[in-house]
Amino acid sequence: MKQYLKSLTLLSISIFFITFTACDNEPLDAGLNGADGNGNNEPSGNTTGDYWPRAEGNTWTYNALGGTEETYTIIGTEIIDGINYFEFDNLLGIPAWMRKGGANYYVRNEVYYELPGFEVQSTPFVVNMLKDDAEVGETWSSNVNYTLSFTPTDGSPGIPDTPVNALYTLEMIERDMTKTVEGIAYTNVLHVHLVVSASGQIEEADYFYAKDIGLIEYISGGGSVTLLEYTLN
């Protein structure tokens, strides 16, 4: 389960998702209850800017975990459960999506990873990963439910599908800060702290979002991922 939670946290704290821009007056529970995933309904708020720019052809290149460079590109749009999303090419081979409603950025994930003898995949779930109007010290959370399925490999015995409940709690640590990443000083940066709790395990991470650019750095127990370059349309 520890391996599962680390994979879950890595997926959730990565920026490289499919993204969707919703109208400010769209009901915020739209798309949150698709499949087995769900999220908490919250007021849309008044956005203070765009901290995850969404347009086809946008790319971000990162110095990723392990020192490798990874580039993620928005390749188009897709309608899921009646809602339009922008689509990234991949996140470590894992499908994921995101939409914005007011000041809230909702990420729709499907976890995939491998364990000895099994391939593990989840049903979709949605997390409110950012509120760009949150004041310093303000918290918000998403309580999500989904199901893990285990596909045996190498003749391993079957494991029943497993329901999971996870609580994502986020806090605005600092606003409008200046942060230097890979020698570049970014202004108008938001610092958000994440705590993920599931099945008695807890993982934490920190995100730094620059206005009109996107995620410039995240830090977790596995290390840090830093922005090297980007192209926005």
From TrEMBL:
Question: Organism's domain of life?
Answer: Bacteria
Residues spanning the signal sequence: 1-22
Q: Which UniProt keywords apply?
A: Signal
What is the official name of this protein in its record? Answer: Uncharacterized protein
